[in-house]
Specification:
With 126 residues, the protein is mainly α. It has helices at residues 5-19, 21-25, 29-37, 43-60, 65-87, 97-115. The longest helix has 23 residues, at 65-87. It is found in: Membrane.
Length: 126
């Protein structure tokens, strides 16, 4: 059980990151609205989508887990900050679903990074 938990967490975060790409890359009206509100439409929407794709893929590659988790933390930290400062918790009557998803995914990414901290080359942890 313990041996499968880290992989399950990585898979969950990767799926969440990758499944949101269809909204960003197809210019879904909700995605366009969000990025317009924060002044990043369309370049930011597409760029963040590419970064989320990279993070999702890295989370599935054993040697890239710590990089993917770190990248996901940065992306999701930015999303949470935008929710708290410019967007609000609820967007287009979603009852806070996007915000909650960002917080949960951020938390899971932090747990993953903690679990794989020994793989970070410049920390030299045993």
């Amino acid at each position: 059980m313990k041996k499968y938990t880290p992989f399950a967490l990585r898979l969950i975060v990767a799926i969440i990151l990758i499944q949101t790409l269809r909204f960003k890359f197809t210019a879904h009206p909700d995605s366009v609205y969000i990025f317009t509100q924060v002044g990043l439409e369309p370049f930011g929407r597409i760029s963040i989508g590419v970064l989320e794709l990279i993070a999702g893929i890295l989370l599935l590659i054993p040697k890239g887990v710590w990089v993917g988790a770190t990248l996901a933390l940065g992306i999701l930290g930015g999303a949470i900050l935008m929710h708290l400062t410019k967007l609000g918790i609820e967007i287009n009557n979603d009852e806070g679903a996007l915000f909650i998803t960002a917080v949960v995914t951020f938390t899971l990414s932090a747990i993953i990074l903690f679990l794989y901290k020994k793989d970070i080359p410049f920390l030299k942890l045993n």
